[in-house]
Amino acid sequence: MKFWIAAALFFVAALAIALSGVNEYFFFAAYVVLTAVTLATAWNILGGYAGYVNFGPPAFFGIGAYTAVVLFKWLEAPLAAQIAAGAAMGGLLGFGVGLLTLRLRGIFFAIATVAVVFIMETLMINWRYVGGATGLQLLRPPVIAPFETYARMLFVVAAFMAIASVAIARYVQGSWIGRGLRALRDSEEAAEANGVPTLKLKLFACVTSGALMGAAGAPMPMYLSFIEPASTFNLSYTISALGGSIIGGMSHWLGPIIGALLLGSLQQIITVTISGEVNVLIVGVLLVLFVVLAPEGILGLFKRWLKASSR
Amino acid sequence: MIFSFDLLAEALIFGVLLGCFYAAVSIGLSVSFGLLDVPHVAHPAVMVLGSYATYMVAGYGIDPIAAGVLLMPVFFVLGVLIYRFYYESFEKRGTEAGVRGLAFFFGVAFIVEIGLILVFGVDQRSVEAAYIGSSLELGEYRIPYRMLVAFGVALVLTFSLTVYLSKTFTGRAIKAVAQDEPALRLMGANPVRIKQWAFGIATGVSALAGAMLIIVSPVEPAMDRVYIGRTFCVVVLAGLGSMTGTLASGLILGIAESIVLMFFGASWAPAVAFGLLLVVLGIRPQGLFGR
Amino acid sequence: MAQSILEVRGVSKHFGGFTALSDVSIDIAPGERFGLIGPNGSGKTTLINCISGALRNDGGSIRFEGAEISALPAYRRTRKGIARSFQIPRPFHSMSVLDNLLVPYEYVAHLKESEAERQAMDILRRIGLAERAHAPSSELSQVELRKLELARAMAARPRLLISDEAMAGLSGSEVEEVLKILFDLNAQGITIIMIEHIMQAVMRFSQRVVCLDAGRIICEGAPGAIVKNADVQRAYLGA
Question: Cα(C60)–Cα(C50) distance, rounded to whole angstroms?
Answer without folding.
Answer: 11
